[in-house]
Amino acid sequence: HAPQATPWSETFRAFTLPHAQPGSARGARSGSAGSGRFDLSRGVVIVMRCYFDGSEGTDDGGAKWLTLAGYMASDQFWRDFDDAWKAMLRDRYPVAPYVHMYEILAHDDPFERVVGWTDDRISALIGDAISLMSSLNKRAYRSFVSSVDVSAHRRLLEEGLKVLDPISILANLGIGGATRWYTTEHPNNINLACVFFDRGEPFMHEFRQTWLMRRTPPGKVSVEPFWDLFEKVEPVEMRCTPPVQAADMLAWARTRSLSSEERQYRYLDQVMSKIIPQDSIRIDEKMMRDLPMTR
After folding, report:
1. Count of alpha carbons within 13 Å of 285, Cβ hemisphere only?
2. What percent of the chain has pLDDT over 70?
3. pTM over cut 0.70
4. What are the residues facing 143 on neighbouring strands?
């Protein structure tokens, strides 16, 4: 059965850590291990790693959509995953140096037809990558795909409605949802998240600037604990980072699904949502009007 998407009203909530409520003494920087924004003396501190990629595209009506997609899991999970992913890339001819959907389907270097990348071999690579993700321990990781109608958002602003900016919407739904998922799965642990994006990803710059601006400064009491969940936000090189390659597949597939035009891999988003543990949501104009998304 396809995984059920988390209800919007439940997803878009305050993401807080156990023992780290806003305005409390426990929410102040203490100079202890980790980010220092919380008292980390109670519970086991686990640094989780989130790998995200962004994508933009238009639907059949010409509306522009912004998507943030990625995965969250522990350090140990990603170490094992890296080995398995790299073995999957090597186990073919030609050897795949990495996975990047745009380059693969455009037959850009290094996926040129002249060096052996036929449509069948490309299909096998994509299929093997999905099979690998679906074979992993489904309690140990989760994927998150969030999309917002940017064109509708612009219209609401023009009407004078005070709606959260798309970056904050996607941060709360995607990255915030990822941290909340792991906290729910491991309620006795305090989880700090390291967030990684592909180097040059436009979304990363905006998210990182927002994080730097809104996280709690040293010596202050936390009033926005959501932004204090993150230990660091950094770029990585996609070609050398298998988790970002997997996130690229999620983001690309969501953007591909925006159009009903019959074309290759149009249904990849639907397939992945059925075989990979996932929270998925699309924020359209009605949702932005009807639900609590104001600043």
Report:
1. 9
2. 81
3. yes
4. 71, 278
